[in-house]
Amino acid sequence: MSARADIAAGAPDWAAVRTDFPVLEREVHGKPLVYLDSANTGQKPRAVIDTVDAFFRRHNANVSRAVHTLGTEATEAYEGARAKLARFVNVRPDDLVLTSGTTMAINLVAYSWALPRLGPGDVVLVTHMEHHANIVPWQLVAQRTGATVRALEVTDSGELDLDAARAALTPEVKLFAFTHVSNVLGTVNPVRALCREAARRGIVTLVDGSQALPHRQVDIAALGCDFYAFTGHKMCGPTGTGALWARREHLEAMPPFFGGGEMIREVAFEQTVFNDPPHKFEAGTPNIAGHIGLGAAVDYLSGLGMDHVEAREAELRAHAVEALDGIDGLRVLGRAPEAAAVISFLVEGAHAHDLATLLDLEGVAVRSGHHCAHPLMKRFGVAATCRMSLAFYNTHAEIERFAAAVHKVRGLLA
């Protein structure tokens, strides 16, 4: 039984919620773990772990291929997870393609939607704050079609300028692909406004929601985008899970990306008749247990209430920014007014990798490197940063331990 509180009773008991996550009970280098790398992957509550375990112990079978009891149970649980995800983001289950994550979802759009449609002179517009997964697929398609990938600049505070975006949405732009929340800066982009401007010009939009869904309520139907991609492992679910939502007209017009079993209606040597979306894009045996686990993660997050999650993380982020601002020689990258609980920073005289390694010896887990965002690092004139990323299961005491560890490590590296 989870320690979560009923939404109707108000905000959850966050201390009790924390006990739902077994990994947070462990020690690292003889010190209690302070896990500040949730933007990399989120930790898993017992509800998810137990669901995956129960599937393998009691229900393991392939989906949509057998009429025996286990096959029926597996199929119902798998499709039930799709329905849960659809409700979570306010879309129809039939418009939600289950994928291995955001990377696969974006590649699906690149090869099934963009490749047949782009040609010389066409432009895919991205931004300087994109993850490589929202840059490289478009470059690969551009090389094959003669199209061009163009990037929208970000301001010194780490934001997109709406006037600059409007000016960049020129007639040759066929697709505008951008992140909902930056995985480096935490910047929350004005998705509705950007999609509205693109739609006025007949430009298709794709939104990378990897860092949004775990931390805030997302109503895809209200955003006005054409495609929305997200990853399960960042939202308390297993790795190798995620989904692509697309407008129905796109799903029906797009050819399949992968070919194989399940995505067909009839196969003959003369031709193949494909299944209806979303199954048309789901060839082969899927990550059944993983997506059933993701369904359990959705249940867990829904039980907490995403409004409570967002408020809790905003409170923790404010504390973290205040703590970091009190450390001499420390620079925070980006200062967008609306930001999620992701903070990238540098310490004068310390390499990001050295800083992260020494913080690990204090039991503090942060990520160091370019965070799969080379163009953004170049934009800010740095090779790498340390990134601390919070989730609702973190505590104010952990932020104090983190700040004390940074003080200590800075002294060692000075």
TrEMBL record:
Mention one GO biological process in which this protein takes part, according to its record: cysteine metabolic process
Name the keywords, alphabetized. Pyridoxal phosphate, Transferase
Enzyme Commission numbers on file: 2.8.1.7
Domain spans labelled Aminotransferase class V: 34-402
Molecular function (GO) terms for this protein are: cysteine desulfurase activity; pyridoxal phosphate binding
Names of required cofactors: pyridoxal 5'-phosphate
Top-rank lineage group of the source organism: Bacteria
Q: Report the SUPFAM superfamilies cross-referenced here.
A: PLP-dependent transferases (SSF53383)
Stated family: Belongs to the class-V pyridoxal-phosphate-dependent aminotransferase family. Csd subfamily.
Name under which the protein is recorded: Cysteine desulfurase
The record lists the organism as Coralloluteibacterium stylophorae
